[in-house]
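Lab notebook, bench 4. Still working through the backlog of constructs that have no structural model yet. Next entry is a single chain of 178 residues. Request: give me the structure tokens for it.
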Amino acid sequence: MDPIRVKPSPMADTRTCDYEKVSVEQLLENSERHIGDVQRALGMFAGLLMEAALQHDRDKLTDIAMFHHDFLTGFKETTWWDRHRKLNRHHLTHPDGIPQDVNLIDVLDYISDCVMSGMARSGEVHPLELPVPLLVRAFENTVALLKAHVIVDTDGPDELTAQKAPPMAMPTRQDTGE
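Model written out:
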């Protein structure tokens, strides 16, 4: 994953500048820079979500024979299932399925997995609960993940256009089912 390079934009916040001396042009430029930075951060998360989507339960396909073997026992034999929880980051209700660096992408994968399987299999979703400490850890790890990919670039060209994120496709009503 490429780092997200940001230029300082201290004039977009009254806590980081002498706001009485900021021109409308400076405020506009710094605000545009900030918006582009946030768009790129959200783009990073969108990419991580897409990667989670592509990787979701891949071992059900790549190890179908072992999956089928355990399935036929009603999961009384759990060789595949035990490995599956460790390979996939979304089994957040099982201690051995929670990655040390659990993050909000994993939480969204868990929610998606439970809702989609419940609806498709029985038409119902069982109550979903995660412990608050797990959610706090996922939140903190997500903050750390983003911070680790941000570089504040005080050198080099200060071209605002180079900082803008590519436009993101917005979902249509057809995509969202509305």
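Notes after review: The beta strands are 4-6, 150-152. The chain is about 55% helix and 5% strand. Flag for follow-up if needed.
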